[in-house]
Amino acid sequence: MLITKFQHACFMVEQDSKSLIVDPGAWSDDFIIPENVSAIIITHEHQDHLDKSKLAAVINDNPDAVIIGHSDVMNQLAGMNTKSVNSGESLMIGGFELEFFGGEHAIISPDLPTIANLGVMINGELYYGGDSFSAPRKPVSLLALPVSAPWMKYSEVEAYLQSVKPSKVFPTHDAILSDKGKELADRMTSRAAERIGARYERLPSATPIKI
Q: In whole angstroms, what is the distance from residue 193 CA to residue 197 CA?
């Protein structure tokens, strides 16, 4: 597989000339519309993960692509080719094996309603929990790890990393950090990864990397 990490929380997986996009949000300014898109996974409805204009552009160039996510999110995408899934479900699409976990967004504030959020395991290797610390309850080779958000504190990042115990880790969900903040997150998370025998690496922006 090839993975391309875009700014903030968006990334793309490629295999056998097919592409799978995860969370093309409004904060991913470097996002480039790929060819041969089989599916777009939306973990939840927040604009930094779901940009309807980006979705429309992807679908315009890839009219057979399917948008996949929780029904609460898919119901907001009237007129698009969507498929609703729930936690505990799995499916195959375009050669990609997808399994879904979790179900709820992490609490930001007690004054804000809880919304649906699904984590996704791709090809039994790469796991991303969206805006939550949901765990897939199975071995993870590569973890997309949120490192900064209004819904977390850093001690939770390390606890989640220790719980999942991946072999490799890359940071995501970090657009609210300055360059200095990203350097700090990288230093701290790299040390935490070393303690569990994992390798932490910040992926270059908009550059395909073999995993």
A: 6
Q: CB-side exposure of 90: number of CA atoms within 13 Å?
A: 11
Distance from C-alpha of 196 to C-alpha of 123, rounded to nearest angstrom: 23
Q: What is the pLDDT of residues 149-200, one digit of tens each?
A: 999 999 999 999 999 999 999 999 999 999 999 999 999 999 999 999 999 9
Backbone angles phi, psi at 201, to 5 degrees: -150, 130
pLDDT tens digits along 105-145: 999 999 999 999 999 999 999 999 999 999 998 999 999 99
Q: How far is CA 195 from CA 36, 158, 162, in A?
A: 39, 10, 9
| Contact call for residues 17 and 2 (beta carbons, < 8 A) | no
Give Cβ neighbours of residue 60 (< 8 Å, ≥ 6 apart): none
Domains along the chain with CATH numbers = 2-210 (3.60.15.10)
* CB-based contact 123:150 (threshold 8 Å): no
Six-digit token pair at 144?
């997309």
Q: Residue 39: helix, strand or coil by DSSP?
A: strand
Q: Residue 51 corresponds to which tokens in the numbers above?
A: 């940009």
In this structure, what token pair is assigned to residue 20?
């799978």
Question: Is the pLDDT at 211 greater than 90, yes or no?
Answer: no
Q: What local confidence, expressed as pLDDT, does residue 83 receive?
A: 98
